[in-house]
Amino acid sequence: MKPKVLVVDDESVNREFVRLIFERSGCEVLEAENGQEAIEVAKREKPDVILMDIIMPFMNGLEACRKLKSDPETFNIPVVMVTALGDLSHKLEGFKAGADEFITKPFDKNELLLRVQNLIKIKRYNDLLKDYSNVLEKEVQKRTEKLRQAYKQLDEAYYELIQRLGRAAEYRDDETGEHTKRVGIMCGIMAKALDMDEEAVKNLEYATPMHDIGKIGIPDKILLKPGKLTEKEFEIMKRHTIIGADILKGGTHPVMQIAEKVALAHHERWDGKGYPYGLKEQDIPLEGRICSLIDFFDACTSDRIYRPAMQVDVVLDMIKDEKGKAFDPKLVDVFFKILDDLMEVKKRFSHGGKPLRIIADREVEDEGL
Ligand SMILES: [Fe+2]
User: Fold this and answer.
1) Cα–ligand 1 centroid distance for 355 (angstroms)
2) Which residue range(s) make up the domain with 74?
3) Separation of alpha carbons 93 and 196, rounded Å
4) DSSP E strands: which ranges in 37-188?
5) Is residue 128 part of a domain?
6) Are residues 189 and 119 part of one domain?
7) Same domain, 352 and 234
8) Gap between the Cα atoms of 295 and 301, Å rounded
9) Does one domain contain both 118 and 181?
10) In angstroms, what is the span from residue 219 Cα to ligand 1's centroid?
11) Distance from the CA of 235 to the center of ligand 1, in angstroms?
């Protein structure tokens, strides 16, 4: 593509003189009679260089240069100011206005050509760099978006896998798998209400559906037994906490590490009478205390194959009674503050029907009390 040179001069003789020089050297020459017209042509034609006279009517060369250099559309076009010999003040003004080069009248034809050609080379090199940088930026944006999509899909798959793992563990007594899902979401809401940071909220939401994974290791005759468990059977039932933590132990991802803590601690009680270790108050990990309360609320208010759901009011009264006994009193207060949100989760993530089999009423001791 031919280099474009814009010659700005109010004298047509001068313009014609310069035109001939550049046309002979293979350039396309554009003309403007004053600064105002120069700006219009520069914006429209995007020349590779502008040769600007200083003294012109309407808008002089200095003012035009200032405007061109402050406009993002034209600031990268090199401007050569044409000054009279010994005109130092115009030269200084030209520098201030952002001029790239000066040529003194009367000029030597070869010097003018060389100076302009150098500027065109630099301009084209800069344009190339700019284009390359735009291409690179677009490519980075494209790849970042691809990476974001891949991460999202991986995250969704991870969450789904956790849900299904939790569901597999509870399948025998929670056929729909909705309890595990609700526990995760409700624990996330509770964590948010406790001002835990976004990452911690997400980790807890992902980890808690696996709280009862240790039930895999509990025989059907105990897990699904209608009626009260014997002392010996209950001892075996309690082991689901240790089995669960054992299945999840050694995880490197924070979700797995929290899941291990929750599996082990979700039947501990604030008063130290829980299991498996009888931990008390703050010694019980916060994640375990949150899951203990949420799991109790949701399990008691959900149908199980061996018992129907209990009335919500009855369960809420039980939670009030167990404040400072089974449950962390501070968490019970927060629980009642966010109760509407928790009930909304129950409504949204419930199949609405009865489970396939309801065997018989059963004591709630396996729900944590
Ligand atoms: Fe449990």
Assistant:
1) 19
2) 4-133
3) 60
4) 49-53, 79-84, 101-105
5) yes
6) no
7) yes
8) 10
9) no
10) 14
11) 13
Number of domains in the chain: 2
pLDDT of 318-361, one tens digit each? 999 999 999 999 999 999 999 999 999 988 887 644 433 333 33
- How far apart CA 62 and CA 91 sit, in angstroms, is 10
Distance between CA atoms of 276 and 263, rounded to whole angstroms? Answer: 10
Written as one letter, the residue type at 292 is S
- Angstrom CA distances, 328 to 67, 100, 130, 211, stand at 69, 74, 61, 18
Q: Is residue 185 located within the same domain as residue 329? A: yes
* Ligand 1 centroid – CA 171 distance (Å): 13
DSSP state of 266: T
Question: Residue for token digits 């909705």?
Answer: 178
Buried b or exposed e, range 26-47, using 16+ CB within 10 angstroms: ebebbbbbbbbbbbebbeeeeb
Gap from CA of 347 to ligand 1 centroid (Å): 22
39-91 residue pLDDT tens: 999 999 999 999 998 888 888 888 889 999 999 999 989 999 887 756 677 77
Whether the Cβ atoms of residue 47 and residue 18 lie closer than 8 Å to each other = no
Ligand 1 centroid–CA 216 distance in Å is 11
Same domain, 181 and 126: no
Q: How far is the CA of 266 from the centre of ligand 1 (A)?
A: 6
Q: State yes or no: cis peptide before 3, omega within 30 of 0.
A: no
Residue 346 Cα, ligand 1 centroid: separation in angstroms? 19
Ligand 1 centre from 353 Cα, in Å?
23
241 C-alpha to ligand 1 centroid (Å): 7
Residues 144, 146, 148, CA angle at the centre, nearest 5°? 70
CA 258 to ligand 1 center in whole angstroms: 15
9 Cα–ligand 1 center, Å: 89
Number of H helices, E strands in the chain: 15, 5
The pTM of the full predicted model, rounded to 2 decimals, is 0.62
Instruction: With respect to residue 166, please indicate whether it lies within any of the assigned structural domains.
Output: no
